[in-house]
Specification:
The protein is an alpha/beta fold. The chain is built from eleven helices and seven strands. Strand 6, helix 8 and strand 7 form a beta-alpha-beta unit. It is globular and about 50 Å long. It binds thiamine diphosphate (TPP).
């Protein structure tokens, strides 16, 4: 694990707690889906918690993020309310988007989360637009943009990075390279080894980090955020990580082996952080258990809230929906 001695115990435990909350939210989401309680599909980021938490920990609360279709973790890490998220997930009137958006369309503008999107790569130009806005308004905010490896092969990625670079916008591009775009492995989709190498084409720093090491992600993004905040323009940070679950619920997982999944599970970002903090004397096993229990309880309460919430009324179902 990368050492960040300037982090306080409180900050470190907050990182662990957020990672635990994301894991608990998504394991519950998986169960609820299996019980037939969810409309549509969903994309889980189990195994990728360190990228969301490490990157967002480098931000100020008033900074912005844009998210992806795999966005539960980003929302929780940015301070989203799991009760409203769970209600949205179950299509309830009390959800973030009054149940109209579901898993893939959660936005929480108050916490600076400009939203998840079902359009792959859609958050990239949105982030650049938001960065242009904060630059013109001189607010000193930074925009952090999450996207997957698949999105990095879309035209909009190149156009957006170019614009951000020539205008020196305060945006940090965080590629969550979880090794596959649906069933397409990165080795077959890219002629280069690291997606971060593409930063050179736009004269911005490009860094590769172990995306399962929350402190390494944090350190890389702190540096990028600092540059952005001081008018030095955008950066690209590639976090190498892995999703434990299938792409979405319709995935038969014929493109990868059980051995590969098992090998990545050994690099569980949560277990790694716990082990590191215990070894450093920052955490006891009892505290680790308490943090895990609290996260679980938070999610149980969120489910109770969502399940007891009303469904949207049929006659109002088009309210707030734009297509
Ligand atoms: C514009 C667009 N093209 C295609 C799709 C279908 N689609 C949904 S997810 C996905 C793969 C995305 O891969 P990646 O960007 O690596 O993100 P990951 O799913 O790995 O998190 C595709 C092609 C879509 N939703 N939007």
């Amino acid at each position: 694990m990368e050492k960040r001695i300037e982090l306080t115990k409180e900050q470190l435990l907050d990182m662990l707690s957020k990672m635990r909350t994301i894991r608990a939210f998504e394991e519950k989401a998986d169960q609820l889906f299996a019980l037939g309680k969810v409309h549509g599909t969903m994309h889980l980021s189990i195994g990728m918690e360190a990228t969301a938490v490490g990157a967002i920990a480098a931000l100020r609360p008033d900074d912005y993020i844009t998210s992806t279709h795999r966005g539960h973790g980003h929302c929780i890490a940015k301070g989203g309310d799991v009760k409203l998220m769970m209600a949205e997930f179950l299509g309830k009137e009390t959800g973030y988007c009054r149940g109209r958006g579901g898993s893939m369309h959660i936005a929480d503008v108050e916490s600076g989360n400009l939203g998840a999107t079902g359009v792959v790569g859609g958050g990239i130009p949105t982030a650049v637009g938001a960065a242009l806005s904060v630059a013109l308004r001189k607010t000193g905010q930074v925009v952090l943009c999450f996207f997957g490896d698949g999105a990095a092969n879309m035209g909009i990625f190149h156009e957006s990075l170019n614009l951000a670079a020539i205008w020196k916008l305060p945006v940090v591009f965080v590629c969550e390279n979880n090794q596959y775009a649906m069933s397409m492995p990165v080795a077959r989709a890219f002629p280069i080894e690291n997606i971060a190498e593409r930063a050179a084409a736009y004269a911005m720093p490009g860094k590769v980090v172990d995306g399962n090491d929350v402190l390494a992600v944090y350190a890389a993004v702190v540096e990028a955020v600092d540059r952005a905040r001081h008018g030095q323009g955008p950066s690209l940070v590639e976090c190498k990580t892995y999703r434990w679950k299938g792409h979405s619920k319709s995935d038969q997982e014929r493109y990868r082996t059980r051995e590969e999944v098992a090998a990545w599970k050994k690099r569980d970002p949560i277990a790694r952080l716990e082990a590191y903090l215990i070894e450093q004397g920052v955490l006891t096993t009892e505290e680790a258990q308490r943090i895990a229990n609290e996260a679980q309880q938070l999610i149980e309460d969120a489910v109770a809230f969502a399940e007891s919430s009303p469904e949207p009324r049929v006659e109002e179902i088009h309210e707030g929906v734009y297509a």
